[in-house]
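Methyltransferase domain-containing protein structure dump, as promised
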Amino acid sequence: MPADFEKQSYWHERFLSETSFEWLVSSESFLSIIEPYLSQYSPTHKDSPRILNLGSGTSDLQNCLRSRGYLDVTNVDYEPLAIERGRQLEQAAFGDVRTKYVVADATQLTCDLSQDQKFDIVVDKSTVDAISCGGTTAFLRMASSVRQCLADGGIWISLSYSSSRFAIEQLPFGVEVIAKIPTPKFRENDPEIYYYCYLLRPE
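structure tokens r here:
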């Protein structure tokens, strides 16, 4: 993995030409894993759950969420071009923009990013992998930022290529693997390789 994944300059150059890209799996596949956790909020919340889509990039995850009726979605990326691309994708799909877009750094989140609103569910689609390229300190800053933006009872669901992404001391979360997704094989005798979807609850 290129070390530049943790640098904003890398993403700026990439998003100059990239208009859409899905990390690891399609948004539909990711949503099939997280939707049971989203739907748990329906009986007790007047409105749909408050969702933070962290490192939204050029994914169409916000469109998949919106198509299922989840409108209280805040899409965050620290590269302004990614925010622009996200709005363009939503506009193209629905004819308007109803989810929120915020330029912010996932390692320095504050609850002010959404009028002091905390979130029921934080999701990231391999953003944790990119930030981990910056080392343990950056990773722990992200974890701390996510924790302070979670509402009481809130959870973080993270998709990663690594089987040990959250095996780190000082992590302020309990962690469980909720899905192992096999990667495509190019040859029949290729080894079994998986992506991992983690559920994290604050401790």
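The chain has a mean pLDDT of 88.
lmk if u need the other ones
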